[in-house]
Amino acid sequence: MSLGNLSINLATVRQQFTIPQAVDACLAQGITGIAPWRDQVHATGLKEAAAIIRSNNLRVTGLCRGGMFPAADKAGLAAAIDDNRRAIDEAVELGADCLVLVVGGMPTGSRDLPAARQQVADGLATILPYARVHRMPLAIEPLHPMYAADRACINTLEQALDICDLLGDGIGVAIDVYHVWWDPKLYEQIARAGAGKRILAHHICDWLVPTRDLLLDRGMMGDGVIDLKAIRAAIEKTGYRGPQEVEIFSQENWWKRPGEEVIATCAERYLGCCLP
Amino acid sequence: MSLGNLSINLATVRQQFTIPQAVDACLAQGITGIAPWRDQVHATGLKEAAAIIRSNNLRVTGLCRGGMFPAADKAGLAAAIDDNRRAIDEAVELGADCLVLVVGGMPTGSRDLPAARQQVADGLATILPYARVHRMPLAIEPLHPMYAADRACINTLEQALDICDLLGDGIGVAIDVYHVWWDPKLYEQIARAGAGKRILAHHICDWLVPTRDLLLDRGMMGDGVIDLKAIRAAIEKTGYRGPQEVEIFSQENWWKRPGEEVIATCAERYLGCCLP
């Protein structure tokens, strides 16, 4: 068993490390995959971040994140489209496998979820040609239903894949176990995603019982109730063999520990809890 | 507009009122529907609670709750079945419209969600004949996916209705907007539930942004982002005309206010926010 197919989403150590520090800590563990967030890239500088990635021969399993389409007015929508084009440019510069999209919730004051979903579909259709020209796959990340109001109104794999089927090539899904593990149709929709070559990323962490915060209480693999091996087996059964990317937001636990310890724990748990 | 089709789930005032106190406060507002929880019934005494209900000509829109089937061993499963039979007896004694079922999550230590779901389906099949004999409809309440691990592994209307279709007559769904409002298939599944005469209850409250606690931060109708009128319109379009039942768990807000104020606010918001 090796760590060759493990990636660290740098949100996991965002309180501890800049990108250069995180890269050093990953390499010290033998981990050569990372997924940065745009604010982290901007803090380091896009060219500097790209140089670090190239010189260390790192795989960038995704850039987080584009999306956030719904807006209260046309100016807001246009700004979102512009920002997504910049995100595509940055993902290209970093050589990322995909641009991960958190599509956005309802504009403030709205109760019209179907309208927000239509804005998302329209926004995706608008940026997709640009992404195709630049050969940057767009990965819709369905988010857990508890984020439907304020973060992402695409909430199941089935819903995301229905949109992909409408839009055609160049777009797929990021399957984050935290968001989809509960879904009665999970295995059916993983098979569908794989058959359509729509799986662009596989994110891992765990669901804690109890979960004390809706956003910032994700667990380390093995500390919760998600059947990580079964989900990975289903994903691999479709032919997908890409990396597993650890993404943990944990205000009261992992964000408070030394970054080296966090990354070492990711490696240990990956080997122990995540390989079928 | 009248309050004739409004019911108060007594969890909404569980920190303030016993059943007799809650009934008095509801009647003072002109509200004649209630839905008690079993612990509240036991505190008052089953016969006394039934007498209060009959003498005041109240409609009991549901008894909360049966369910909680999955267990780690056969003794646990058998105990759950026994308890559900007692819950059916109590619902009959109270003249409830239905027994609401929160079906249970995974047994402690388990990561096998499909197995828990099978235990639920088996448990429902086991108690259904008893419920039929006693003419007590069983209402599966699909719970929000954030409760899949520890409270209910039936998490969408589609999943609940699939189980109903397998089991036949005498079982349906309680549609609680808090649990289902996010679902991309909501309106399609409401139509399906109505067509199959499966709608047994309609619970209302609101989803707050931000939501500060996974369990105890539900909002009063109108304070959140759920399109209550649209959902009610869809439910009525199927022919269902039953009560709307307010169920709010709110540790930091509504549970701290005087019960009379809470019930008066329920009435006001029902008239203003919930009628299509």
Structural features, described:
Two copies of one chain form a homodimer. Chain A has 276 residues and is an alpha/beta fold. Chain A has a single domain (6-273), classed as Divalent-metal-dependent TIM barrel enzymes (TIM Barrel, Alpha-Beta Barrel), CATH 3.20.20. Helices cover 43% and strands 13% of the residues of chain A. Chain A has ten helices and nine strands. Chain A has helices at residues 19-29, 38-44, 46-55, 74-94, 113-133, 157-167, 177-180, 186-195, 228-237, 259-273; strands at residues 6-9, 33-35, 59-60, 63-67, 99-102, 138-140, 171-176, 199-204, 244-246. The first copy, chain A, has a nine-stranded parallel sheet with strand order 3-2-1-9-8-7-6-5-4. In chain A, helix 9 links the parallel strand 8 and strand 9. In chain A, helix 8 packs parallel to helix 9 (228-237). The longest helix of chain A is centred in the N-terminal third of the chain and has 21 residues, at 74-94. The radius of gyration of chain A is 18 Å and the shape is globular. Chains A and B meet through loops of A and loops of B.
